[in-house]
Amino acid sequence: MNPVLHVESDPHDLTMLNIIECIKSIQCEDHFASREKRTQRERASVVKGFQQAVVHELETNLAEEFVWSQEYKHPSDRKDAVDIFGTSRDALVVIELDANRADQVAKKFLSRSAIFEGNKIYYISLCYPGTEYMSVKECIKYFDYCANLARRLGNVYAGLLIQRI
User: Fold this and answer.
1) What is the pLDDT of residues 12-40, one digit of tens each?
2) CA distance 106 to 110
């Protein structure tokens, strides 16, 4: 299981390509291979472990370009945190980890785009397997919508799903 790129708003942006390649290299088998029923707390623990693995990979491979943090809270919005946040002189990286639910993808993209208005944003939706009732096709459709809006806002977007290759 690995993150698989489904949608990107700018296939020529080198910064986004480097971030995507770093994320795609992460082995997800240990985190998401089991399809056993888990409690909400157990699922949150699995996602937290995966989040730490992603940050470790980014810090290992892209430390010269960005400073990375987890659970970043913007001063104007103390209730909600960005899962993985990268900063540089020129841009911000926002990576949100969610189950493959289109409504979560859309909600997070919209709110982050509004909160960080005025900054160049590299936004990544990194979705892990949800329940059998969550539509992967609908999630990918919303990746397309987010990519379209990102282009209009002067930002860069990528949508990835963790899948068996």
Assistant:
1) 999 999 999 999 988 877 766 665 566 66
2) 6
Round the CA-based radius of gyration of the chain to a whole number and report it: 15
DSSP output for 145-159: HHHHHHHHHT-EEEE
The model's pLDDT over 148-164, given as tens digits with 9 standing for 90+, comes to 999 999 999 999 998 87
pLDDT bracket for residue 132 (50, 70, 90): confident
Sheet holding 82-87, edge to edge: 2-8, 156-163, 121-128, 92-99, 82-87, 67-72
- Give the pTM: 0.90
Cβ pair 123, 157 in contact under 8 A: yes
* Sign (positive or negative) of CA dihedral 42, 44, 45, 47: positive
CA distance 6 to 20: 11
Show the tokens assigned to 81: 């945190």
Contacts of 11 (CB under 8 A, 6+ apart): 17
Which one, of 66, 114, 73, lies nearest residue 88 by Cα? 66
Identify the structural domains of the chain with CATH numbers, from first to last: 2-163 (3.40.91.20)
> Which amino acid is present at 138?
E
DSSP 8-state code for residue 63: T
* Cα distance between residue 86 and residue 19, in whole Å: 11
